[in-house]
Amino acid sequence: MELTWHGHSTWHVSVGETDLLIDPFFDNPKTDVSPEELDPDYLLLTHGHADHIGDVDRYEDATLVATPELVGYVQDTFGHDSAVGGMGMNLGGTVECGDAFVTMVRADHSNGIDTGYGTSAGMPAGFVVSDSKPTQESDAESSTFYHAGDTSLMVEMREVIGPFLEPDVAALPAGDHFTMGPAQAAIAADWVGADVAIPMHYDSFPPIEIDTDDFVREVEATAGPSEPVVLEGDESYEI
């Protein structure tokens, strides 16, 4: 499984022959990639805020994976071809997306659509992407990536996501202000038990500018299982 961070919360995930793109928003200072350079099979959306769906209109041929409310909104608003299909799902569900299995998990955040934030897109979410279907049996051979979405620290990480979905790599929002900051993101890494913790959702605009050295220090201070890894924009990491 290859993970490529294109800044903010935008990730390109390759599992076998399947390409997934999570939260497309290329108007951020960490990427030099143009949206047209990518051709994902599936487009995963954690929630409906503009900095997570900003470039959805560039991927009309991709199958949408999001809450039913958000799938409907994107198809109606951005010209996404409803004939291509949308895979509406909800918290706790797992769907098969080509060679990948995608589980939608809880994220504690808001989920209004448009500048007025008056329309709900259902529950905000995170995704756990794996190359094998999750079961109660531990699978050391499986490769698993946790995209936490725009979440605060929550006990679901410690009680459900960590022990049952067993992420190898966790991408955690660390920009503070709208999500967790470095300290809480480090605790989240410890709680999910990921081998590698990567910060995201930072430096895109002034309120979420951070020193990533703080993230590294906080992860190391937990003395947990996670190695902090800070990616450059458009850099890849392979599980």
From TrEMBL:
It holds the Pfam family Lactamase_B_3. The keyword rRNA processing does not apply. This is UPF0173 metal-dependent hydrolase SAMN05192561_101872. GO terms for molecular function: hydrolase activity. Keywords: Hydrolase. SMART domains: Lactamase_B. PANTHER family: UPF0173 METAL-DEPENDENT HYDROLASE MJ1163, UPF0173 METAL-DEPENDENT HYDROLASE MJ1163-RELATED.
